[in-house]
Amino acid sequence: MKLDYLDQLESEAIHIMREVAGQFERPALLFSGGKDSITLVHLALKAFRPGKFPFPLVHIDTGHNFQEALDFRDDLAERIGEKLIVRYVEDTIREKKLKEPTGRNATRNGLQTFTLLDAIEEFEFDACIGGARRDEEKARAKERVFSVRDEFGSWDPKRQRPELWNLYNGRIHKGENVRVFPISNWTELDVWNYIRREKIALPSIYFAHERELLIRDGKLMATAGGVIKPEPDDQLVTRRVRFRTVGDISCTAASESQADTLDAVIDEIQATRISERGETRMDDQLSEAAMEDRKKGGYF
Amino acid sequence: MSERANDRAAGAVKSVLRQPLIRSFTLSLIKMDLLRFITAGSVDDGKSTLIGRLLYDSKSILADQLEAIERASKSRDDGEIDLALLTDGLRSEREQGITIDVAYRYFQTPKRKFIIVDAPGHIQYTRNMVTGASNCQLAVVLVDARHGVAEQTRRHSLIASLLGIPHIVVAVNKMDLVDYSQDVFSNICIHYAELAKKLNAHQVTYIPMSALNGDNVVDRSTTMPWYEGPTLLEHLETVGIDDDAEGKTEERHPARFPVQYVIRPQTAELHDYRGYAGKITSGLFRKGDAITVLPSGETSTINAIEIAEEHLDEAISPMSVVLHLATDVDISRGDLIVRSNSQPVSTQTVDAMLCWMDTKEFKVGNKYVLQVGTARTRCSVREITYQLNVNTYEETEDVESLKLNDLAKVVLRTAQPISFDPYQKNRATGGAILIDETSNVTVGALMLVGEAG
Ligand SMILES: Nc1nc2c(ncn2[C@@H]2O[C@H](COP(=O)(O)OP(=O)(O)OP(=O)(O)O)[C@@H](O)[C@H]2O)c(=O)[nH]1
Ligand SMILES: [Mg+2]
After folding, report:
1. Of A2, A5, A288, the CB nearest to B72
2. pLDDT of residue B123
3. Residue B62 and residue A14: Cβ atoms within 8 Å?
4. Which helix (H) or strand (E) segment is B335 a member of?
5. How confident is the model at residue B6, as a pLDDT?
6. Residue A242's closest CA among A257, A228, A253?
7. Pairwise CA distance, residues A261 & B215, whole Å
8. Which residues of B touch A275 (CB under 8 A)?
9. What is the pTM of this model?
10. Distance from the CA of B93 to the center of ligand 1, in angstroms?
11. DSSP H or E stretch at residue B157
């Protein structure tokens, strides 16, 4: 008997989730509807069945999500019989009288943080499990598995706790919370290989399909839901595309692709010379340290 | 410490200097395994540059990531592409040109999958190096060819040894700045081998290189024809890390299962279901095994082993499973289930090697929370037996207190008995941490030795 690396990664992730269950009183699993958080749900099933999850699924909805992802989210929660809490950025904007970003490439992605911090306060969550991976981005490559945040949700990269072996220290003061990343050590390809091996269902938009898009700054952006308002110089096209990541419509670009099966998607990802976030995320390309700054502000 | 390690270190120097290393590819071809390694050494010795070079020359950098570091390098004076930026991802790291915290990078070649941990050299951030090193099987210790072995080289080597990292690569870097001189390299090897005698490493390998120019990182150097050993990547791809080679004997791999969480659905149809969830940290459990629960000492038999409602006859480390026992035993998080025929050390007075990681002093009488496996208990400091001098590796007795980054042997008294295996025998079950009760921060890394005499 010998474990391959996917077995090892799976076991590590299950172990981390159970540490959350054992060390915290009010944890939550942040669920976005994307492949990484769907993988987290699958890992939670492995960690806690036949018992119930010791945490609800929490979705921070920007109001700019793909309908396919939202339907999938509701289906999944119902299918596994676990509690789903949704909090809306829309409501935060209204209640807090926030100024919504305007202009050509406006996105609500940044405002998510406010809604997340409010939800943490509302439910007194002491730990939030998320699907961030260290291979995604250079600031994430530096973060601990148990990432302690102060009462403002803020990450201080210069004051991270030592974290040795598989001993996680989740002791915190009241008001602080911990962000926990069970798939820290997985790469994009590991996630896809695991999805294939475990036959995990995904929203249809991860596979090649025809849709209307507009070309902006060289990126293919979906016109779905009217989130992105076409401007006179935007070119409208219909293309066969898939989404490599599924996030907020306003900042997630599509890739032209014919890959309509898992095998084909994995082949494409293996061959690509562009990183996941580089290909799809507009929000990281704003500045050199965009992710680090967002994390300091309480983001994932 | 060990005679054998000593001879091997000396042998390794000879073998790189005189003859090509005989390497075997057969083992790694059977299956793709995973090597976790860390860079270590003094500030500015070129650790991050080396990792960048390794990724660059093995074509593991994606086009947009390369563009991003090219763009970031442009704002620098010389305009050369700075490969250290691949891992130095924080704003302050880029501003100061140093590494502050460990960065993790993932890559693979046709032979192996790798998790790279790039550590900071700066003494202030030693705790981050310790964090990264704890799970590694190999450390690449960099030495600047111009300066030779420095204090931080010794400190990191000692930490690697205390953490039980079996393989050390001494990368003598910046050979371009010493005219690729064989004499310089040999002298550093001889010097380090002296040091290695006092350490626990199973194997030390010496490679002369220039991370900046890419000599002997992925591609063989043409400027150092006198060196006939492997390049760094060749070595990483072939170094023997197969734990099985050492035999999965009960003595080396005793069966250990720290209980993390109890699964009790308490529904009508699963009314009596009670499963103990955890990860097998060491060894193998089979259905029917006689087990003992620690610290209570109660015994029972394994009724079933389960993963997500699928039943197994046996399970090995590091699998995360659910165990069911034949009888009702009082078990909760923090308990350790072991096979009854291989008992660990259980004691309230423990000898341990300590790596102190806090700015507050560590003193006799101080109290902390000790975490080992899933168990937590309060403890107090009985004694500082000796402190290790990071330069000479000598033991200094009569030490009053320890300061940030000090290494020492200590005796702790715990409120509850703790169960563990000596760390140098079993890395998976002999490590523990100290937590400060007021700040909640992890302040100490403990390599448990045994019951204090
Ligand atoms: N000439 C020469 N310079 C090198 C070589 N390797 C690294 N350097 C330079 O040495 C300096 C420090 O390199 P880094 O890679 O940042 O050093 P480091 O060991 O990661 O430093 P810390 O992480 O802060 O401890 C940089 O200016 C590098 O360009 C080499 O082989 N030759
Ligand atoms: Mg560095």
Report:
1. A288
2. 94
3. no
4. none
5. 43
6. A257
7. 43
8. 62, 64-65
9. 0.92
10. 13
11. helix B151-162
Q: What is the mean pLDDT of residues A203-210?
A: 95
Neighbours of A226 (CB within 10 A): 9
B33 touches chain A (CB under 8 A): yes
A36 CA → ligand 2 middle, Å: 30
Is residue A289 pLDDT above 90, yes or no? no
Q: What's the mean per-residue pLDDT of chain B?
A: 90
The mean pLDDT value for A134-157 works out to 92
Q: What percent of chain A is modeled with pLDDT above 90?
A: 59
Closest CA to B276 of B327, B238, B221: B327
pLDDT at A285: 56
Residues B92/B99, Cβ–Cβ less than 8 Å: no
The enclosing domain of B94 has a CATH number of: 3.40.50.300
Residues of chain B in contact with residue A280, where contact means CB-CB under 8 angstroms, are none
Q: Which residue has the higher pLDDT, B87 or A98?
A: B87
**Tokens found for residue B361:** 């002093």
Number of domains in chain A: 2
Asked if A164 and B369 come within 8 Å (Cβ–Cβ), the reply is: no
Determine the Cα–Cα distance for residues A20 and A14; give it in Å rounded to an integer. Answer: 10
pLDDT value at B24 more than 60: no
The verdict on A234 and A175 lying in the same domain is: no
Residue with tokens 């970003």: A101
Residues 253-312 of B with CB under 8 A from A: 260-261, 263-265, 270, 273, 275, 277-279, 281, 284, 307-309
- Of B238, B265, B294, the last residue of a domain is B238
Ligand 1 neighbourhood includes B93 CB (under 6 angstroms)? no
Q: Are residues A207 and A262 in the same domain?
A: yes
Contact B281, B256 (CB under 8 A): yes
Q: Which of residues 189-208 of B touch A (CB under 8 A)?
A: none
- Whether the pLDDT of residue B12 is over 90: the answer is no
Which of the listed residues B238, B273, B295 is the one where a domain comes to its end?
B238
Domain that holds residue B205: 3-238
Question: Has residue B228 got a pLDDT over 80?
Answer: yes
**Residue A275 covered by a domain:** yes
Mean pLDDT of chain A: 89
Q: Ligand 1 pocket: which of B212, B218, B224, B232 to mutate (most atoms <8 Å of CB)?
A: B212
A261: closest CA of chain B, how far (Å): 24
> Do residue A62 and residue A153 come from a single domain?
yes
Q: Which residues of B touch A4 (CB under 8 A)?
A: 31-32
Q: In this predicted model, what pLDDT tens digit does every residue of B297-322 receive, in sequence order?
A: 999 999 999 998 899 999 999 999 99
| CB under 5 Å of ion ligand 2: residues | B 47-48, 99
Q: Which range marks the domain in which residue A265 is found? A: 202-280
Task: State whether B112 and B261 are in the same domain.
Answer: no
If we measure between CA atoms, which residue out of B107, B88, B101, B98 comes closest to residue B36? B107
Task: Tell me if chain A has a CB within 8 Å of the CB of B318.
Answer: yes
Tell me if A164 and B87 make a contact (CB, 8 A cut-off): no
pLDDT tens digits, B268-291: 888 889 999 999 999 999 999 999
Is the separation of the CB atoms in B5 and B199 below 8 Å? yes
Based on the domain organization, do B331 and B267 belong to the same domain? yes
B73 in a domain, yes or no? yes
Same domain, yes or no, for B227 and B268? no
How crowded is residue A75: how many other Cβ atoms within 10 Å of its Cβ?
A: 12
Whether residue A102 is predicted with pLDDT greater than 90 in this model: the reply is no
| B81 touches ligand 1 (CB under 6 Å) | no
One domain for residues A37 and A143:
yes
Rg (Cα) of chain A, in Å, rounded?
Answer: 19
Residues B183, B260 share a domain: no
User: Do the domain assignments include residue A196?
Assistant: no
pLDDT band at residue B242, thresholds of 50, 70 and 90?
low
Q: How many structural domains comprise chain B? A: 3
| Residue B258, phi then psi, degrees to nearest 5 | -75, 125
